[in-house]
Design brief:
It contains six helices and no strands. With about 220 residues, it is mostly helical. It is rod-shaped and about 170 Å long. The mean pLDDT is about 80.
Length: about 220
């Protein structure tokens, strides 16, 4: 059984109230939209049948108009032949056709009123459907935001973060070990010519600085 029992129920419905009272708003709004769409299809199909009926009635009226003209011609012919009885019978048939055409015209007018009501209902249904779809988009966005926040909280406070940082520590330890092995591999190796010359230059600088320091101390003692 649907949420709504008829078109007027949908038009009068307060979508917000329905969703506020629902245990599962997302599911409820999907059901509301589905029923509105189905109702809209039914109303449009009914309007289409009404339009088709009107077209058929107008074609019938056109035939009745031709029939009236034909009976008029026949009445005139009968009178021209002094057959008043036949003329009167022809006019009776013409009146029958005229009465039927008038009745069909009244039915077309009534159907026009029904079509106007259907058009108004369709406009209101479309407005309600737009409202429901807007609420659906809002609910979907809110649910997605809530899920994202939950995932973020889980990421920041869960064991996965600790595990990730633990792996970082392990990787850093492996890098330290690899660098240590590289440095250790160079220990005790024969020095290159460039390295020995660089050491000599460094030694000369140290010796020169040492002699300068001795000279300053010596001058200070003499003073």
């Amino acid at each position: 059984m649907g949420i709504f029992s008829r078109t007027r129920d949908i038009i009068a419905a307060n979508v917000t109230d329905l969703l506020d009272k629902a245990e599962d708003p997302a599911k409820m709004v999907r059901m509301i939209i589905l029923e509105m769409e189905e109702t809209l299809v039914e109303v449009r199909a009914s309007a289409a049948r009404t339009i088709a009926d009107q077209k058929e009635m107008r074609r019938h009226i056109a035939k009745l108009d031709k029939l009236q003209a034909s009976w008029t011609e026949k009445a005139e012919l009968a009178l021209s032949k002094d057959r008043e009885d036949l003329a009167k019978a022809a006019l009776v048939e013409k009146q029958k056709a005229a009465d039927m055409a008038e009745q069909l015209g009244e039915e077309i007018t009534a159907l026009d009123d029904a079509l106007k009501a259907s058009e108004a209902d369709i406009n209101k249904l479309q407005a309600k459907l737009r409202e429901a779809r807007a609420r659906q988009n809002s609910i979907t966005a809110r649910l997605e935001s809530a899920h994202n926040r939950a995932r973020m909280r889980e990421m920041h406070s869960g064991a996965k973060v600790d595990e990730a940082f633990s792996r970082f520590d392990m990787l850093e330890r492996r890098v330290d070990f690899a660098e240590g092995r590289a440095e250790a591999a160079g220990m005790g190796a024969a020095k290159s010519l460039e390295e020995e010359i660089a050491e000599l230059r460094s030694s000369e600088k140290v010796d020169a600085e040492l002699e300068a320091l001795k000279a300053r101390l010596s001058r200070g003692g003499q003073g």
